[in-house]
Design a protein that fits this description.
Chain A: Keywords: Oxidoreductase. The complex is a heterotrimer of chains A (about 325), B (about 260) and C (about 110). Chain A is an all-alpha fold and about 325 residues long. Chain A has helices spanning about 15-25, 40-65, 75-100, 110-120, 135-155, 160-190, 195-215, 220, 225-230, 240-255, 285-295, 295-310, 310-320; strands spanning about 270, 275. Chain A has a single domain (about 30-210, about 230-320), classed as Ferritin, core subunit, four-helix bundle (Ferritin), CATH 1.20.1260.10. With about 260 residues, chain B is mainly α. Chain B contains ten helices and no strands. The chains are: A mainly alpha (about 325), B mainly alpha (about 260), C alpha+beta (about 110). At the A-B interface, helix 2, helix 3, helix 12 and helix 13 of A face helix 2, helix 3 and helix 7 of B.
């Protein structure tokens, strides 16, 4: 095939020129696509962010999965099955996005799984926690997914096109998740004293994890915050603390309206600063949790690893059917 | 309808409802553990559809005065259950939250053989003398095309892959057939189900199942192992697996049966 | 590293019989048949769909960033569009006739003459 494109070849750009051009595109609000040139730090930041997001969805299926068969009516069984299925589906979307980003490094989904098992790839703090009761399934849907909606909608306009498109799908489904959770919580809140006690206990258990979910306010807290780069390159717009404040504004009145007590007596809205004042969660504990030292970290990883290893023969078998 | 006839109808509906209820449960235990993420998502839809079918059968039971659908699904003890033993069997050693040594070959073979039988049964139910059941069969049939094709694709592809896969599939087929004997059985209600023309004779259905399966097996050069019956689930005889399943399925509901969940 | 079965498939679907195929997303599967078994439940669980295509990504000839230069056009082609013939409206008015514009013509579907 005769190739005439060389006649139109743009002048070879230096690395600095490429970077300048890239920054201009981001400034102009253009979307970066998988095949476009991007600086390594942008690619690496995305890989880190999206692989953690994706694997968290996959790991996030496990704490709720426990309550799928136990759900207390046929309708609840169906609802939670669909919800956990969506979590796996979100994992699928996000892993596809990150797999395309890793392609130049010659890495695949199998490497992501290895990274998870060896601890190189972390997942969100909330998915290291136990789910002790049916009310926890409600709390996860209502508040953990509520927190997730806040962080994910913050990235809907992400400069990386494939991520923005995946988030568009994910956020649309999260609306169902939040309502699924609200419906469980509402039934318990309007139920017997034992049912009411069940949600209060669940809120007490989960409150600190919910605050941690948004990450530390500053890098100094844990030394791992990536928020500066992600904001500079328009992957996200708001800081961790701004997102946490949004969460308070949206959810504190709703939680209280159901007669639930938030386990933080210092929590209040300060009219003067327009900020919520709250007791900081234990950030040392947070660091420990995401590094795999949470109450259920080992069990959850073992569960995923057992199934991954047990099914190795299936993946090998499928490799014979490539066509 | 005489009381005896109502009971025969109820017996058949319990068989259908309990089958899909347990089948959907075993499917849902695979959530998050399937060999491939895309498959995890796809097969979860099949488990959901099947749970939806169970809910519709329990609803028919509610309508003939057997009690509330949720209570029928969650409260009845093992000896009251009429599902085939095949669908109550565990997915493998371990618990779904701890060391699940689940066998995907068993899942594929069980799901394929069960879905093929379900298709044969639903086709027969479309002609049932009990009109609400015939109408329901027409609806359920719409979702079966995908279920059947899905499991047939897995069944044939795994059989045509590695030697290891083939051995695992053969072993699974052996186990599935060892429990298959009660699937088309109607248990103690056989005579009335036949007289009332609720559903065709079990021998006829079994033949249709063999006829549908045989060409697939011939293509794959697979010999069908002997079919047996360990327990007759249709008469409430079950393996210990069912008891464990029921205590998980009813754990929250049974905390307070009168509460709204 | 062991060989994996991960082949990339792009999934397209049609929402209604009259709609065009729309790209949905991509998935990993070993072959077309498996890809098709997973497509609807992964990307169209909640929306109607009347048809699905699964396409192996390597069979798609896309454009490199450089090749996208071929998409550029000068903005001097109004002779190709109705924009270049807008003056006719005034002309027809002179003859006391209405111009048959796009809106009018597209409203004739089904052969109705209004």
């Amino acid at each position: 095939m005769y190739d005439a494109t060389h006649l139109f070849e743009p002048p070879v750009m230096t690395e600095e020129e490429k970077l300048e051009h890239f920054k201009e595109r981001i400034e102009n609000g253009e979307k970066i696509e998988a095949d476009d040139w991007m600086p390594d730090f942008y690619r690496d930041t995305l890989i880190k962010l999206i692989s953690m997001h994706g694997i968290s969805e996959i790991m996030g299926a496990l704490p709720e999965k426990e309550w799928v068969p136990k759900a207390p009516s046929l309708r609840r069984k169906l609802g939670i099955m669909a919800k956990v299925q969506d979590e796996m589906g979100h994992g699928q979307l996000l892993l596809r996005v990150v797999e395309d980003l890793m392609k130049p490094y010659g890495k695949t989904r199998a490497d992501l799984m290895d990274d998870l098992f060896t601890g190189r790839l972390k997942f969100h703090n909330v998915f290291h926690m136990p789910t002790r009761s049916w009310a926890d399934a409600g709390t996860i849907g209502w508040l953990v997914d509520g927190a997730a909606i806040i962080t994910q909608t913050n990235m809907l306009g992400a400069s990386y096109g494939p991520y923005a498109r995946a988030l568009q799908r994910i956020c649309a489904e999260e609306v169902f998740h939040a309502q699924h959770g609200e419906s469980i919580i509402m039934a318990l809140a309007e139920g017997t004293p034992a049912q009411k006690a069940m949600i209060q206990e669940s809120l007490d258990e989960w409150w600190e994890s919910l605050l941690m979910f948004f990450g530390p306010a500053t890098k100094e807290t844990t030394g791992t915050s990536k928020q500066d780069v992600t904001i500079a390159y328009k992957i996200r717009t708001k800081t961790n603390e701004e997102l946490r404040q949004n969460f308070f504004t949206k959810y504190v009145p709703r939680i209280r309206s159901l007669g639930l007590v938030i386990p933080d007596p210092t929590l209040r809205f300060d009219e003067e600063t327009g900020q919520w004042i709250y007791a900081q969660p234990d950030w040392t504990e947070f660091k420990k949790i995401i590094q795999g030292g949470g109450p259920r970290s080992k069990e959850r990883l073992a569960l995923r690893q057992t199934s991954y290893q047990n099914n190795a023969w299936v993946r090998e078998a499928l490799a014979e059917t490539i066509g | 309808m005489t009381e005896a006839e109502r009971l025969a109808l109820a017996s058949l509906l319990y068989q259908l409802a309990d089958d899909d209820f347990l089948y959907a449960y075993r499917g849902s235990e695979w959530l998050g553990l399937a060999p491939h993420i895309e498959e995890d998502v796809a097969s979860s839809s099949i488990a959901q559809d099947s749970m939806g079918h169970a809910a519709m059968y329990y609803q028919l039971l509610e309508e003939i005065g057997e009690g509330k659908a949720d209570a029928l699904a969650h409260v009845r003890l093992a000896h009251e259950r009429k599902n085939s033993v095949l669908v109550e069997r565990v997915n493998g050693p371990g618990y779904y939250m701890e060391n699940p040594e689940y066998d995907w070959a068993y899942a594929v073979v069980r799901n394929y053989c069960y879905t093929l039988a379900k298709k044969v049964r639903i086709d027969s139910l479309k002609k049932s003398s009990y009109a609400p059941l015939a109408a329901l069969a027409v609806k359920i049939n719409m979702e079966l095309y995908y279920h059947l094709l899905h499991w047939q694709t897995w069944f044939t592809q795994l059989y045509q892959s590695t030697e290891t896969a083939r051995q695992k599939m053969d072993a699974a087929l052996e186990r599935v057939l060892a429990d298959f004997g009660d699937l088309f059985d109607y248990g103690e209600a056989t005579q009335l189900i036949d007289e009332m023309q609720l559903m065709e004779d079990q021998g006829v259905l079994l033949d249709r199942w063999y006829q549908a399966l045989t060409p697939v097996l011939v293509d794959l050069n697979v010999t069908l192992p002997e079919m047996n019956m360990t327990y007759n689930g249709r008469n409430g005889e079950h393996s210990p697996d069912l008891n464990d399943a029921l205590s998980t399925l009813g754990e929250v509901y049974l905390l307070d049966q009168s509460a709204v969940w | 590293m062991t060989e994996t079965f991960y082949q990339e498939f792009e999934i397209f679907s049609k929402r209604t019989p009259n709609a065009a195929f729309t790209h949905q997303f991509s998935l990993l599967a070993p072959n077309k048949e498996m890809a098709l078994m997973m497509a609807q439940e992964n990307f169209m669980r909640r929306e109607p769909v009347v048809d699905i295509w699964v396409v192996k990504r390597e069979d798609i000839r896309g454009m490199t960033p450089d090749e996208k230069q071929m998409l550029q056009r000068l903005d001097n082609k109004d002779y190709r569009t109705t924009k270049g013939y807008g003056y006719l409206k005034k002309k027809w008015r002179h003859y006391e006739q209405q111009m048959l514009d796009e809106k009018e013509i597209m409203s004739w579907q089904g052969g109705d003459s209004k």
